[in-house]
Specification:
It is built from 4 helices and 2 strands. By secondary structure, it is mainly alpha-helical. It has one domain. A two-stranded antiparallel ribbon has the order 1-2. Helix 1 runs parallel beside helix 3, helix 1 crosses helix 4 and helix 2 crosses helix 3. It starts with 11 loop residues before the first helix and ends in a 20-residue tail after the last strand. The N terminus is likely disordered.
């Protein structure tokens, strides 16, 4: 198997900002992408989010996870043998990118190269009828 093409890597600072933004209440994959497109970066979106919420008529300011909380989550993932991979990075699953609203950040454990191998998925219900 050949090595994956190197995609742009998030810096540690960017990864923390992405994690803080996606962990913010009411920010999902679609709104994450819209905020990045509008403000240019997760850091800029995080700065503008309180003002954006107020101008949008929110009754309260949304609680944005702190830098310390994001650092703790990254460290917990590291201790578990996992890492966070951003969309566009080399280890991000290529098929996942084809979804309408793919998650911008994934916790991944193991080798990212397996995402480029043929796969089979089995889906079932716990209580089949």
């Amino acid at each position: 198997m050949s090595a994956p093409a190197a995609g742009p890597r998030l810096s540690d600072r960017q990864r923390l900002a992405w994690l803080r933004l996606i962990r913010t209440p009411n920010v999902g994959p679609a709104s994450f992408r819209e905020l990045i497109n509008r403000f240019g970066s997760a850091e800029a979106a995080l700065e503008m989010l309180p003002e954006l919420m107020i101008s949008g008529g929110a009754n309260r300011i949304v609680r944005i996870p702190s830098l310390a909380e994001a650092e703790a989550e990254l460290e917990a993932a590291r201790r578990a043998g996992a890492r966070f991979v951003g969309i566009g990075e080399a280890d991000y699953p290529p098929l996942l990118k084809t979804l309408d609203n793919p998650p911008p950040l994934l916790a991944v454990k193991g080798e990212g190269a397996v995402f480029r191998m043929p796969a089979v998925a089995i889906v079932g219900a716990r209580n089949a009828s």
